[in-house]
Model the fold of this input.
Amino acid sequence: ICFILYVVTDLFHFPAGDKNYLNATEDETIEFGTPKVDIENYPSNYAEQWILIVPEGRKVQINFDIFELEDSEDCKNDYVEFREASIMVGDPKRIYGHFGPILTGRLCGNAKPNSILSQGNMVWVQFASDRNSTTVRKGFKASFKAGVLQQSGVLGLSFVTRHVSSFISFSFGK
Done:
């Protein structure tokens, strides 16, 4: 029974860390990334999340300025990942991205990623580093803004069901 409990809790384990809500207006660009990027390396055993939000009807456009993370097989050590985010049904104050549609999967290494464009107006970002302090790097710095308008008359439906939570995200073009 203990083994089963461990497996179940491990399935839903996400790195802890600060959760930051960043809301860009129509003409605003906002920067985010690892702490003290370009000054010192990011800390080991560190995690942080960001929820990037742009006005309804717009897509989130993400661009990278600096990208230098530890490189590992399948980016299992230090990584950043990007997913579509959704508002939980019945609770508009709770935004989730853990189980959202994947925009990039885990990214690591030194190759600066191409720009990312979401389908909806919210993106969940997760950065995590492992406990190895000898492999930490410079980190990443990115920015986001309101990208292109979503197509008029198109209903975008994202339905994700998991063992713990279910939610639906609707997006109507304007």
